[in-house]
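Risk register update: the risk that structure generation would not scale has been downgraded. Supporting records follow, first protein first.
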Amino acid sequence: MNIVVDDLSRPEIAAFLNDHVREMRAITPLESKHALDLDALREPEVTFWSVMDGQSVVGCGAIKKLDAFHAELKSMRTAPTRKRSGIASSLMEHILTETKRMGFTQLSLETGSAEFFLPARKLYERFGFTYCAPFADYKPDPNSVFMTRPL
């Protein structure tokens, strides 16, 4: 496995992210869906990583700069056939290291409150994230939970 900064130009990553957005739309009401589409992930304040196994995309994650010291974790996904294989943990370690190296002192995230998102919430808890109030432009939402951690 190799974790690389991705410019989002390959059709394989576009398909992987389209599957992510489609899955989130199927689980979460549209007004509560905060997954970024391909264009939003290409914005300059976003750094995107792909997890590659040979030529196959098996995971991804990104951070979005909120201000000079605070970033948001976005687009964490593991290929359905590779869930619970350590990809998300490896990627989370990588993102935490890189985010700190970039000078951020806080990393926050929004994820779903539904049972489907329980494995993700447990992963974030294992990595030191704690529950918090909505941040940035988020509003309270029964379909969302918010988490944060210092770096």
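Supporting record for the second protein:
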Amino acid sequence: MSFEGYSPAALDFLWGIRFNNERGWFLAHKEDYQSHVLAPTRALGEQVYDAMHEKYPHEPFLLKMSRIYRDARRLHGQGPYKDHLWFCIRAGGEDWTGRPTFYFEVAPDYYSYGMGFWAPKAALMEAYRRRIDLHPQELEKLVRKFNRQTQFVLTGQEYKRKKGETSPLLEPWYNRKSLNFQHELPPDERLFSPELAQDIITGFDGLMPLYKYFDALCAAEAAGEK
């Protein structure tokens, strides 16, 4: 099944669950969720994954789809359902936190895709800064290329107190608790077009050098290398 674009009914459902986050409403609209949100998101994820796997067959990528059901142990006063859905493409393994991950997410008021980290450990970010200190030219080359494109922006929480000094080029990348390379827009005509899939594939391909840089860093940190 190829991705044909989302429909306005997808946003209708996502707005609906945001303001009616309870079981009765969800069950009454479950077919809308399955047809207009879940099915196209799965089709989009599979199309993007297939393209990435074909181009990078030696990367141990897996496709992971989110569930609309919140973890009952972590509701924290929120309703039992999410008002957004996502898929991610990442390396295999049980523990994928702190690993570079490609992602797409759709919500009632935005859609977003890119590559970044989910809750990287402090030790990983320390290893990242050490690598910059020892081999700044590796990241400088990638940053220059990243700064020439306009699809993604660098985001991620910054430390309140600087962790060190580096070149002006790398300064925005150095003192961060996490890094995310993000393209986010309010719902527009692209969301409803099959061409969105190619936008994401092209974007992920452009981020691949950064993915490999951070994936190698994660592997080295896990192996205890300096």
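The longest helix spans residues 195-222. On this basis the risk owner (M.S.) recommends closing the item.
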